[in-house]
C-alpha cells in the first residue's frame, strides 16, 4: 500500500505534571517513527481549554506531521485513547495541496530567514576583515615613511 501524509493533534493531561506530558509526547513520537516517517513535531506546550474536559482546564498540546500506511492512524488513535493521561486526539489525512500547519510553516520560514541572515553576516565579515588588514598595513607603512623627529 502507498503511504499517505497525516497530521495528528494530541492533548495530554497536565494533572501529573508537564514533564509527564512531555514523556508521553516523546513516547508517541517514537511510535510514529517506528511505523512511518515523522516530518515534524510541534510542541505547543500547555494551553487552557475553552471549556473543561474531564474536569481539567488545561492540557499539553503536541502536533505530529507524518507519513504512514493507511491503517496506522487508527492504531495511533487506539494507543492514545487507552493511555490514561491522554485527553484528546484528532488525526486528519493531508492532501498534497495542503500546506504545513501554520506553526510548522512559520518555523520553516524562520529557519530560512535565519540562514539567509547568517550568510549575509558572513559576507559582511569577510570585507571587514580585509579592511582591517589593509588599515593595519597602511598604518605600518605610514609609520615607516614618517621620519622620526627629535
Strand content: 25-35%
N-to-C span = 92 Å
List how many beta strands DSSP finds.
4
Give the second-level CATH assignment, the architecture of the largest domain.
2-Layer Sandwich
The coarse overall form would be elongated
Tally the helices.
Answer: 3
Mean pLDDT: 83
CATH superfamily of the largest domain: Ribosomal protein S6/Translation elongation factor EF1B
CATH topology-level name of the largest domain = Alpha-Beta Plaits
Q: In CATH, what is the class of the largest domain?
A: Alpha Beta
Uncertain residue ranges: none
> In which range does the helix fraction lie?
40-55%
Radius of gyration: 27 Å
Strand order of the largest sheet: 2-3-1-4
Order of helices and strands: EHEEHEH
Structurally, the number of domains stands at 2
Protein structure class: alpha+beta
